[in-house]
Write a sequence for this structure.
């Protein structure tokens, strides 16, 4: 049953990702992006990372896509004109894809992976309590640095979007 | 065929490749940003899959950080795009060639 759900949501995620890449209208691309994020959240639920699934829906499918849609409508971006894809672009994406496949095959066929069990093991305390404990003990410094990063990003956005004085 | 770590990594890699192709192919800056988000999400899926199948919490915590950084990055990036649009009245990459030659 879980396997069936995995394949359904994998198809949804990848299909909507193709929609993002190939839809000519940016608003449609943003809508496909929401569906991709929801598919990812479903994957997170299947991996029993419930907290991150909620965060994924709230932050990505909510805030980030709304921001994208806001900017698309603010700038009044129209449909993208048809253009020829350069041969070099095809070569670059194919080479990148081949390298990625090579990496995935070499990782999944290595012994480090094989020691993990084939099917989903029992959840070893992957609860929100353990998540918070880990976050505020082992990763406390990165956590605080992230807070500063958000502050700096906020100040940066204010500075960037201030009207430039013309004298 | 049971779903194991390999299947999740395959989905993650496919999503990353799609995002990469989109970044190379599209000319609209906003859609390029969306494709970057796809690539970040692919990394998140890989991290969570590894963390789940090896029974640790570190991967999930890293995903938390990735999401935070991605949100900050989107805010700053879109502000830059708006500033660029104010200056040049376009978001299409081929027309932004001030540094060419």
């Amino acid at each position: 049953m879980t396997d069936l759900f995995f394949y359904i949501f994998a198809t949804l995620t990848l299909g909507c990702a193709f929609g993002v890449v190939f839809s000519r209208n940016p608003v449609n691309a943003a809508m496909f992006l929401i569906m991709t994020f929801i598919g990812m959240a479903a994957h997170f639920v299947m991996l029993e990372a419930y907290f991150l699934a909620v965060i994924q829906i709230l932050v990505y499918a909510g805030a980030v896509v709304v921001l994208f849609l806001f900017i698309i409508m603010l700038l009044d971006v129209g449909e993208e004109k048809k253009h020829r894809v350069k041969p070099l672009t095809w070569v670059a994406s194919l080479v990148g894809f081949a390298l990625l496949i090579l990496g995935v095959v070499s990782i999944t066929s290595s012994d480090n992976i094989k020691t993990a069990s084939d099917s989903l093991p029992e959840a070893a305390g992957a609860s929100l309590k353990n998540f918070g404990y880990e976050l505020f003990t082992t990763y406390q410094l990165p956590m605080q640095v992230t807070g500063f990063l958000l502050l700096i990003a906020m100040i940066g956005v204010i500075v960037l979007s201030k009207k430039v004085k013309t004298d | 065929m049971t779903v194991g770590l390999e299947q999740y990594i395959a989905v993650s890699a496919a999503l990353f490749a799609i995002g990469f192709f989109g970044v190379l192919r599209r000319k609209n800056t906003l859609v390029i940003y969306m494709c970057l988000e796809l690539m970040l999400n692919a990394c998140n899926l890989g991290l969570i899959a590894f963390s789940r199948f090896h029974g640790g919490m570190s991967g999930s915590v890293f995903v938390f950080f990735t999401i935070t950084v991605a949100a900050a990055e989107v805010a700053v990036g879109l502000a830059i795009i708006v500033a660029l649009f104010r200056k040049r009245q376009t978001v299409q990459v081929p027309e932004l060639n001030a540094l060419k030659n």
Observations:
- Chain A has a mean pLDDT of 85.
- DSSP finds seven helices and no strands in chain A.
- The radius of gyration of chain A is 21 Å.
- Residues 50-75 of chain A form the longest helix (26 residues).
